[in-house]
Amino acid sequence: MRIADLLRSAALVTAVALIPATTAGMAQIDGRAGPQFAKLFAAYQQVKANYVEEVEDDQLIRGAINGMLGSLDPHSAYVDGSALQRLTTMIDGNYSGLGLSVVLDEGAVKVVSPFKGSPADKAGIKAGDFITHLDGELIYGNDLDTSVARMRGAEGTSIELTIFRPGRDEPIEVSVTRGVIELEPVTYELQSGNIGVISVNEFSTNVGRDVYAAWEALQSEATGKMSGLILDLRSNPGGSLDEAVGLSDLFLSEGRIVSQRGRARGENVHYDADELINYRHLPRREAQKYMGEIASDMPLIVLIDAGSASASEIVAGALQDHRRALVMGERSFGKGSVQSLLPLGRDSAIKLTTARYYTPAGKSVQEGGITPDIKVPQLSDPDLEKRNKYLLRESDLRGHLVNDLGVEDAKVEVDTIDDPRFQLTAAELEEQGVEDFQLHYALETLRRTTRATVALRNTVALRN
User: Fold this and answer.
1) Closest CA to 74 of 404, 408, 405, 392
2) 110 membership: H or E segment, kind and range
3) Which of 168, 200, 220, 269 is most deeply packed, by most CB within 10 A?
4) Is 404 a catalytic residue?
């Protein structure tokens, strides 16, 4: 795939809200940078002349660009060759592998989240795990693309993973059989009490349309008498900004959805509900079908956790700020920056952080994430207490972008006060048949909520 084709796509299934940069202002080089460029060229000449082995120019230039971008933040990167192919396959949403969203943390491959239903998920790999060995070979210190490429492979082949799980004394050895990752972006189920559950697993193309279709199917199954809706965004590492806006728009009749602010004038953009631009990838007649508020007469709960990042946080923040939904679960990842793909040629580009995004109330999600209205721990996880000490969020990544609004440390700390509602152990819940405590708690909350006592207060909205 040529870089021009990639730029036309607006979906990336990682913890990034990626948008294509159609225009990019070229900054004027400060005259004072001349001596610094001279140092760079002098270093290049010394390596070419004196390194113990002959080095290709391509290797040196790639290394210089990677070093430059790596000094900025964890999400800016040079993209070509295998890295560009990895972007392409994620955008297509169809590749053979394990189904993991990972980051490089201090030289180690750390799991942000396994995709639901993927081979990694079925093998029991969890958010926060460190992958230390592949087929017995240490991968610590490798670049991320090299490690990810090794985890990819033909469907049906297996790979041995050695995992360090915080809270466990011994490493975990697990064999995972690769599969074709054809993620279902949206799944749904009607629960007892006519409560619909729509799970959004990634923000790839047409997620808003798929959620609308799921909503219509639930209504049909419930014969039009649904009493509540749960939008599950847990372990959703993000994706397309456009799709996050489109999904939010389904549940909002007016007002701001999200805004982004950057240094360049072209990066200052805001998105409002009920605007055709939110559906610019659809024909006008079809776009008009989705404009307006669905499920407006019933309570809505949004579930999030530490694996909910980027586009997931845009949706949760918009619905929370407009008091359209009750956000429940655990504090989200805190990925509040926008990456633009800027071409360097036909087959290479840089993925550069160009803006921060803000919720309708003007809150930056960067570092702090989305704080749930009701914090509900995942008590079904037997390793919950130990793993909570080592949960990975944006603020834990080396060189992360600092929240420009100055979030106080106290506001991003985990509340350590025991809640009397959440004292059951994973074993006790298993005896009761509860496999997913957070979902169970949300369902029970809605079953106790009548239409007359809707907790959403959706008549109170932010108007911008």
Assistant:
1) 392
2) strand 108-114
3) 200
4) no
List 310, 312, 332, 380, catalytic entry: 310
Cα atoms found within 13 Å of the Cα of residue 371, Cβ hemisphere only: 11
Long-range pairs, 164-171, Cβ under 8 A, ≥24: 164/129, 164/130, 164/132, 165/126, 165/128, 165/129, 165/130, 165/383, 165/387, 166/128, 166/130, 166/386, 166/387, 166/389, 166/390, 167/383, 167/385, 167/386, 167/387, 167/389, 167/390, 168/383, 168/386, 171/132
pLDDT at 392: 54
d(CA 301, CA 282): 28
What CATH code would you report for 97-181? Answer: 2.30.42.10
Looking at the structure, give the CATH architecture of the domain made up of residues 186-407+419-453. Alpha-Beta Complex (3.90)
pTM of the model: 0.72
The answer to whether residue 351 is catalytic is no
Burial of 238 (0-12, 13-18, 19+ CB in 10 A): buried
Sign of CA dihedral 320, 325, 327, 332: negative
Q: What is the b/e burial string over 358-395, where b = at least 16 CB atoms within 10 angstroms of the residue's CB?
A: bbbeebbbbbbbbbbeeebbbbbbeebeebbeebbbbb
How confident is the model at residue 452, as a pLDDT?
Answer: 44
Q: Out of 110, 116, 126, 335, pick the active-site residue.
A: 335
Q: Quick one: pLDDT band at residue 385, thresholds 50, 70, 90?
A: low
> Which amino acid, one-letter code, is at 50?
N
Domain extents in the chain: 97-181, 186-407+419-453
- Backbone phi, psi, residue 388, to 5°: -60, -25
Average pLDDT over residues 209-225: 90
Cβ atoms of 284 and 301 closer than 8 Å: no
Query: Which residue in the list 73, 210, 305, 321 is annotated as catalytic?
Result: 321
**In the beta sheet, which residues pair with residue 230?**
197, 301
Is 321 one of the annotated active-site residues of the chain?
yes
Looking at residue 288, its amino acid is Q
Which residue from 37, 461, 398, 414 is spatially nearest to 256, judged by alpha carbons? 461
